[in-house]
Write a structure and sequence with these properties.
The protein is α+β, with helices and mostly antiparallel strands and 190 residues long. The protein has one domain (6-188). It is built from five helices and seven strands; from the N terminus they run H-H-E-E-E-E-E-E-H-E-H-H. It has helices at residues 6-11, 18-23, 128-131, 146-150, 169-188; strands spanning 41-44, 51-56, 84-90, 103-105, 112-114, 118-124, 135-141. Strand 1 and strand 2 form a beta hairpin.
Length: 190
């Protein structure tokens, strides 16, 4: 992912008001984001831990093109298309942290985590549907670091079962981008 400025991030939100986009806090280490290791930028608002956001470079939008010409491996978002930022709400975990013997899988990167490593994130739909309270959800890595898990730069805590895939790293990244684009399209196509 190419570096993106704070102003560009705030201008790219598609499912919230300009005021909401202005209020979300970027992470304290925003200047040190490892852009070259990311396929999308995701973070939890440090001032409101139930609020999060993701920025997908060149993602599909209701007014723009969908998946197109190129990504690092030849598929994915169209080159030169504008990034899309999505405001998310992280669901609260009921009943404490859950069983240490339970694991969950992120639906974008398919990383298997111990309890608490995956959370349900919901996003209001773009436009009138979102203003009417309609939303969609997806189970994602709780820290939104899917790109780092895919590249082996971050490891899940206490994974109980280790699944080995036969896909290459590039194929895993492409799969994650397709899943993320599908999620983004569900939000913006309303």
């Amino acid at each position: 992912m190419e570096p993106i400025s704070e102003a560009a991030i705030r201008a790219s939100f598609v499912n919230c008001s300009k005021g909401e986009a202005a209020r979300i806090k970027l992470p304290a280490d925003f200047r040190d984001v490892p852009w070259g290791d990311l396929d999308f930028f995701g973070w939890i608002d440090p001032s409101a831990p139930q609020r999060a956001a993701i920025v997908v470079p060149g993602a599909a939008s209701a007014s723009g093109p969908g998946p197109g010409a190129a990504s690092a491996s030849g598929t994915g978002a169209a080159i030169g298309s504008a990034p899309v930022a999505i405001l998310l709400r992280k669901a609260e975990r009921g009943g404490g942290r859950g069983s240490a013997a339970r694991s969950s899988m992120c639906q974008v990167c398919l990383t298997d985590h111990s309890a608490g490593g995956v959370s349900l994130f919901t996003a209001p739909l773009a436009g009138a549907a979102g203003r009417n309270g309609n939303s969609v959800g997806e189970y994602l890595c709780s820290d939104l670091a899917c790109s780092l898990y895919l590249r082996g730069k971050r490891r899940p805590r206490m994974r109980l079962v280790r699944f080995e895939e036969t896909l290459t790293q590039t194929e895993k990244i492409d799969r994650a981008l397709l899943k993320l684009t599908a999620f983004t399209t569900r939000i913006t196509a309303a």
